[in-house]
Amino acid sequence: MNAVSTDDVLSRIRAKRAEVDRFLAAAVPRKHRLLNTTIVGGSVAAALTAAPAVGGQSFTMWLTGVLGLMSPSWRLLCGAASLASITATIATQLLKSNNIEQNIGRAQSARAKLEVLETSVTLGQIDGRQAVAEFLKCVEEASFLEAPSRLGHSPTTVKLAPKSQNQLRPAAAFRDGPRPAPSRSPSSPR
């Protein structure tokens, strides 16, 4: 039976954790930016429409004079409110349509499971088959991660090591990462 070294399993776990950490480092700030854009855009839209509603005609005439506008200032305020509202709506839809919150939760869960798995393997608390099976579950859970730098490359294969006391014995060799992208022929359109 083929054996995979503990070091090989640990290096794969660490590589997957690094991939998850890179995803989180990009996704969490993006989520915060989109949420802040939604909040600020909605608040600005509300403030711009509330000003002429509360201040009435005297406020809009005053603002028109102060800004030196040829047309009534309420048009400017309503236009700016529309832009702020559209910005908030787009940010909200980007947040929801890309499943950013769900993917962040899944990535955080995968990172925690990979950390537990790494600790268990390092301390010898689980056997080789279980370690490989748990690692494969983590890889499957984190399958939504995009790794553009690895697309198009052949998958990493498991290097077989000679039997020793510090070996794990998986049921089958495993790969990490996405499947390679299909190659395009030179005549196919891009």
Structure description:
The chain is an all-alpha fold and 190 residues long. It has one domain. Helices cover 65% and strands 2% of the residues. It has four helices and two strands. Strands 1-2 form a two-stranded antiparallel ribbon.
Short description:
This protein has one domain. The chain is mostly helical and 190 residues long. It has helices spanning 6-67, 73-97, 100-122, 128-141; strands at 4-5, 167-168.
Sheet having the most strands? 2 strands, antiparallel
Mass-distribution shape: rod-shaped
Distance between the termini: 45 Å
Q: What percentage of residues falls in helices of 4 or more residues?
A: 55-70%
| SS content category | mainly alpha
Please, how many helices? 4
Spatial arrangement of strands, main beta sheet: 1-2
Number of DSSP E strands: 2
Order of helical and strand elements: EHHHHE
Task: Tell me the β content.
Answer: under 5%
What is the count of structural domains?
1
Rg, nearest Å = 27 Å
Low-pLDDT parts are: 147-182
Comma- or semicolon-separated keywords:
mainly alpha, two-stranded antiparallel ribbon, single chain, 2 strands, 190 residues
Note the topology.
Blueprint: E1 4-5, H1 6-67, H2 73-97, H3 100-122, H4 128-141, E2 167-168
Antiparallel strand pairs: 1-2
Helix pairs in contact: 1-2, 1-3, 1-4, 3-4
